[in-house]
Design a protein that fits this description.
The protein is mainly α and about 325 residues long. The protein contains 14 helices and no strands.
Length: about 325
């Protein structure tokens, strides 16, 4: 790896850390201006102003927003996100109890979506203009146009209510057999994966077709290489950068969709935890969950940029 690539990768990492710092300020500012107050939420509507003021002082909510931000940021840097203002338990414990479930759902969705999308995208590029390609293209446009909550609702109506094949809610993530795992994750993965597969497929197809139009591909064809060999051994390696971006952007979309899906299916993940924390005005918990989602998004985008830099043949062979 030459110096140019190392410099570009270092710049992307520094830019990612700077973006994360800016995001932390935005997250704290947004949660600070949300209507309601944790002290009022905890004491109820019948609490006197004096009791609310005393509890606000005890919670540290009477201090200026700037001081609270820097205290919170320092705690996050040390791995201490504070305590829940509702339950009093450390935020880290609450997050750790739910994070594995969300990671498991994301992993299952990724394992289902990425191979399917890449395979269909490459196949559509190989058979560009065919009836198969046109059908898949129309289907992906239709799926992308439908939001996750509608896909999830329709999936529940069809597979859980009408056919009674699958459970409508996902309460337990302790999987003891492949059959239980399939039943527990089928509807959430279908709801999340449909849009992700459609987006990733379209971008993969476009990246491969773009490489197929390059001048070096014409030389490969003149040498007598088959269409499959041309795509797999010549076009695809040079399309790794755009495809990595497609995968990263699609998986970052998963982070937003998982919030809707966990709420609809009552899945015990971190997104459901964040939604419950918002309803209870538990700001330390909301801030920690939001930072996890933002950090995961930035990491995925940064990894996509790094893959694109490393896979760039002009930089690699400089």
């Amino acid at each position: 790896m030459n110096f140019t690539i190392l410099k570009l990768v270092a710049n992307r990492i520094v830019a990612g850390l700077a973006s994360l710092l800016a995001v932390s300020a935005v997250v704290f500012a947004i949660t600070a201006v949300l209507p309601g107050d944790a002290a009022e939420e905890k004491l109820g509507q019948d609490a006197t102003p004096e009791a609310v003021a005393a509890l606000r002082k005890e919670m540290g909510l009477d201090r200026s927003a700037v001081l609270r931000y820097f205290d919170w940021l320092g705690g996050m840097a040390r791995g201490d996100a504070g305590k829940s203002v509702v339950t009093g338990m450390p935020v880290g414990e609450a997050v750790n109890s739910r994070l594995p479930a969300s990671l498991l759902l994301a992993a299952v969705t990724t394992a289902f979506s990425v191979p399917l999308a890449l395979g269909l995208g490459i196949l559509c590029a190989l058979r560009r203009g065919s009836a198969f390609d046109r059908f898949i293209s129309m289907a992906t446009v239709a799926v992308v146009s439908v939001p996750e909550f509608l896909v999830a609702t329709l999936a529940v109506l069809v597979f859980a209510v009408q056919l009674k094949w699958l459970p409508a809610l996902s309460y337990d993530v302790n999987i003891s057999s492949p059959g239980e795992m399939l039943r527990s994750f089928a509807l959430p993965v279908l709801s999340l994966g449909s849009v992700i597969v459609a987006q990733m497929l379209r971008m993969t197809r476009a990246a491969v077709i773009d490489q197929m139009a390059a001048a070096y591909i014409e030389m490969v064809r003149l040498k007598g290489a088959s269409a499959a060999r041309t795509v797999l051994f010549h076009a695809l390696p040079n399309a790794i950068g755009p495809i990595a971006n497609a995968v990263a952007l699609s998986l970052s979309y998963l982070l937003g969709g998982v919030i809707i899906v966990e709420v609809i299916f009552n899945y015990p993940g971190i997104a459901k935890l964040m939604v419950d924390a918002v309803s209870q005005r538990d700001m330390p918990l909301v801030q920690a969950c939001a930072m996890i989602f933002c950090a995961a998004y930035l990491i995925l985008v940064m990894l996509a940029d790094v893959c694109g830099i490393v896979a760039n043949p002009r930089l690699r062979h400089q």
